[in-house]
Amino acid sequence: MADDTVVVWDEALLTYDMGDHPLDPVRVELTMALARELGVLDRPGVRLVKPEPADDALLTRVHDPAYLDAVRAAPRDPLFAGFGLGTSDNPVFDGMHEASALIAGATVAAAEAVWRGDARRAVNVAGGLHHAMPARAAGFCVYNDPAVAIARLLDLGAQRIAYVDVDVHHGDGVQEIFYRDPRVLTISLHETPLALFPGTGFPDETGGPGAEGTAVNVPLPPGVGDAGWQRAFHAVVPSVLRAYRPQVLVTQCGADGHRKDPLADLHLSVDGQRATYRTLRALADELCDGRWIATGGGGYALVEVVPRAWTHLLAIATGEPVDPATLTPPGWRDLAARRRPGHEVPLRMTDDVDPSYQPWQPSGEPNAVDRAVAATRKAVFPLLGLDPHDPRD
Questions:
Q1: Is 131 a catalytic residue?
Q2: Do the Cβ atoms of 220 and 232 come closer than 8 Å?
Q3: How does pLDDT run across 138-179, given as a tens digit for each residue?
Q4: Between 264 and which of 55, 90, 168, 320 could a Cys-Cys bridge form, CB atoms 3.0 to 4.6 Å apart?
């Protein structure tokens, strides 16, 4: 296997544009510009690959043909309604099918490169549209590119795929699509569904008949910061992945758990997000011979957070992490100020937060985070042959 990293990129990915909407493609544009100015995309072994749109054969591995017809037809019909389209969350826009199919094709290209051994890791920061359902748009997502890519990996012969979702919202679409398939493990850490869209992702959602233990959910209370989030992540994710022994790791790396994100209530920092990406790469190296496919996802602090978080993701996927103390380049600051006047433009790649944490222990008076961890471990660990009370598991 080549020890290279594929970054799937084309400016056409920015055409997934819902207009005056939180999911603004400027966040992807500024990410790629920041990564380029910091030299991340020019590292040895980094290959930029131009994607092709996913065709109907690929998309219908996940989505109903009637839904594809609706996505194509909606921009031509001003009175169109149905399939979750035409709502404030999922407004109809010109070229919607083409833009959505291109994002799906980009994540499929990343998956194919890794599975075929052309690269050890691959990234599509424009992807991660994890809420789309087989016959319905939801949560800003038209086609579910992580699920389409996972289906493609299954078709190529993968037997154990792990999907880890660290977006602030539950990865409901990917979970739903593979809920009864034991070949796909889905893990999601997210703000509690009692407080946040989409209202799913409770600990007792553990997989359908024949796939018990292959859905893992860690719902966290509002206000959790880096220490609590890292504590929960490390109390669940490594043990579950080691028990499942995946051949390839797919991750959705939404940046909307950040304390400045306007759509949610977790209090993570860019430093904490960077630490999570480092752990995900280490787990891929330990368990999957390095095979790691990473996507973006949510993230609505368009200038302040997303470009820095995902540049850290790109750096970790392509080689050495960027030093948190690194200054953002003046040229990038100028671009960000021009593209989004009035937004705070960060001067450094850090929030000056130490993301260290105390490992979970099953003793003592539990706080809200520990109660969430205990509920998840109790629900799913026995199904995987793990002891929910043993911190070594």
A1: yes
A2: yes
A3: 999 999 999 999 999 999 999 999 999 999 999 999 999 999
A4: 168
Residue 363's pLDDT band (cuts 50, 70, 90): confident
What tokens appear for 86 in the block?
Answer: 């035409």
237 with 375: CB under 8 angstroms? no
pLDDT given at position 1:
62
φ/ψ region of 95 (left if φ > 0, alpha if ψ in -120 to 50, else beta) reads left
Q: Show the DSSP H helices in 245-367 as ranges.
A: 270-287, 306-318, 330-339
d(CA 168, CA 191): 6
Structure tokens at 94: 């010109």
Euclidean distance between CA atoms 301 and 310, whole angstroms: 12
Sheet holding 184-191: strands in order across?
A: 46-49, 5-8, 121-124, 292-295, 248-252, 161-165, 184-191, 215-220
Please check whether residue 185 is in contact with residue 160, taking contact to mean a CB–CB distance below 8 angstroms. Answer: yes
Lowest mean pLDDT: which of 140-149, 200-209, 218-227, 361-370? 361-370
Q: Give buried/exposed letters for 21-59 (b at 16+ CB in 10 A, else e).
A: ebbbbbbbbbbbbbbbbbebbeeeebbebebebbeeebb
pLDDT digits (tens, 9 = 90+) for 73-107: 999 998 898 999 999 999 999 999 999 999 999 99
Report in angstroms the alpha-carbon separations of 197 from 170, 257, 268.
Answer: 8, 13, 18
CA 7 vs. chain centroid, Å, equals 15
| Mean pLDDT computed over every residue of the chain | 97
pLDDT of 364 strictly over 80: no
CB count in 10 Å sphere of residue 296: 27
What type of residue sits at position 229?
W
Q: Residues 131, 190, 258, 267: which is the catalytic one?
A: 131
End-to-end CA distance of the chain: 31
